[in-house]
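Full entry
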Amino acid sequence: MIVEALIYDAFSKVPGKGNPAGDILSGNKLSDEQMQRIAKELSFNETAFVVQDNNTNLSIRYFTPGHEVPMCGHATIATMYAFAENGIIKNGFTTIQTGSGKLDIEILFDECIRIGMKQIAYKEMEYLGEADSLAKIIGVESYMIDDRYPIRYVNTGLWTLPVPIKKLSYFNNMCPHTKAFPKVLRELNTSSIHPFCTETYDEKCELHGRHFSSPYSGTVEDAVTGTASGAMGCYYEK
């Protein structure tokens, strides 16, 4: 079987920047095993598979190279862009079904194709582990963690753990020890980790962050993330 895979760099107008995602618009033809094999071969952080489309009920499944996940922000944006670019979806609103629930999507055609995505309701969970252990698995020292802010798991589609960091310079040498994540993240051992700080390179930005993948995903880091950024926005406001 020959399967066409579209590749999009989400959140950037520059090829090779942003966060790359694979898009398979013919997911209905594939078994779970085939989807997983394709995602592993493409080797992006996520590949999206459209499994149902009757113009009113669009369903998407998401696979990392290691396993299926219920939701992925950048791959959703990429899929909606693919539909808009190929004339399958026009201006206006639509709803998609994901493993995390139904999401409202807005598509606008003006100077470019613009995609807006509403994420699921924000929720959080307490992190009960030690800050020292958490610091070690992302490659920093415990004194670099900013204790002005709480360490809590957050979710607007996928669980991630924001880790407040005192200085922007501390990000440069971060090196995640991904295999050790489950031993430290005992409450949610499939969670990703999202170190952030309020010092930024761009004065227009409120936060700077990196995003280290779930230990079961088969990847190490996202260049930029949609779902975690949504959760971080809620965390920041709260």
